Amino acid sequence: GAVVSQHPSWVICKSGTSVKIECRSLDFQATTMFWYRQFPKQSLMLMATSNEGSKATYEQGVEKDKFLINHASLTLSTLTVTSAHPEDSSFYICSAVRDGGYQETQYFGPGTRLLVL
Amino acid sequence: AQSVTQLGSHVSVSEGALVLLRCNYSSSVPPYLFWYVQYPNQGLQLLLKYTSAATLVKGINGFEAEFKKSETSFHLTKPSAHMSDAAEYFCAVCSSGNTGKLIFGQGTTLQVKP
């Protein structure tokens, strides 16, 4: 149990286009999900906390108009990279907290690799 | 503010040798501490976590870690390395108030030589 999926697993797009990444909890409900970003050979940096039914909470330095987060249901959160540029190329990973579980226990998705040309 | 420091960005051991990956934390409140493993182009898998119960925590794949408050450390060990252990390892601390926010260390690449 506790499987989190991400779609797509990788995407290549042209500069200026928008890209949507989905994060789904397949076998549990998750009011809270997190979005992380990981550059090559670097650690994960928390971008935002996604809460179902409310606005996402962004970390300092993360542009909320650039990275749109929508948590429309208890099993789905989406991250849209708007007007993507080459510097947005990265590995994006989401995690989900099982409702009723411990907040600190997060289940991670497999990640989405974004390459902006 | 909470932070995590992993000593050594790259650790190389021979197959069958002891694995020791170091992690020191800084926290003004009792921390929750975690070790995750990441294989290439994949997400993170939880190895083990410390949540203020037993100081010696046993995880999956034969890994364990000991919480030492006096040393503010949470080092990860495994008695005998396998080739399949080669991966990136991250130590993380959960932010105060149990909001679920994870602060990750820089990561340590474990290389296992035959």
Outline of the structure:
The complex is a heterodimer of chains A (117) and B (114). Chain A is mainly beta and 117 residues long.
Outline the structure in words.
The complex is a heterodimer of chains A (117) and B (114). Chain A has strands spanning 4-7, 10-13, 19-25, 32-38, 44-51, 57-58, 67-73, 76-81, 90-97, 106-108, 112-116. Chain A is mainly beta and 117 residues long. The mean pLDDT of chain A is 92. Chain A contains no helices and eleven strands. In chain A, the strands form two sheets. In chain A, strands 2, 4, 5, 6, 9, 10 and 11 form a seven-stranded mixed β-sheet that branches. By secondary structure, chain B is mostly beta strands. In chain B, 0% of the residues lie in helices and 55% in strands. Chain B contains no helices and eleven strands. Chain B has strands spanning 3-7, 10-14, 19-26, 32-38, 44-50, 56-58, 64-68, 73-78, 87-94, 102-104, 108-113. In chain B, the strands form two sheets. In chain B, strands 2, 4, 5, 9, 10 and 11 form a six-stranded mixed β-sheet that branches. In chain B, strands 1-3-8-7-6 form a five-stranded antiparallel β-sheet, with no helix packed on it. In chain B, strand 6 (56-58) and strand 7 (64-68) form a beta hairpin. The mean pLDDT of chain B is 91.
Which stretches of chain B are poorly predicted, pLDDT < 50 over at least 5 residues?
Answer: none
Structural class of the helix and strand makeup of chain A? mainly beta
The rounded distance between the terminal residues' Cα atoms of chain A is: 37 Å
Q: How does the helix and strand content of chain B classify structurally?
A: mainly beta
Indicate the radius of gyration of chain A in whole angstroms: 13 Å
Encode the helix/strand succession of chain B as letters.
EEEEEEEEEEE
- Number of helical regions of chain A: 0
Q: Write down the secondary-structure element order of chain A.
A: EEEEEEEEEEE
Shape by Cα distribution of chain B: globular
Major sheet size, sense and barrel closure of chain A:
7 strands, mixed
Multimeric state: heterodimer
Distance between the termini of chain B: 41 Å
Largest sheet of chain B: 6 strands, mixed
Shape descriptor of chain A reads globular
Helix content of chain B: under 10%
Radius of gyration of chain B: 13 Å
Quick one: how many beta strands of chain A? 11
Mean pLDDT of chain B: 91
Strand fraction of chain A: over 45%
Helix count from the secondary structure assignment of chain B: 0
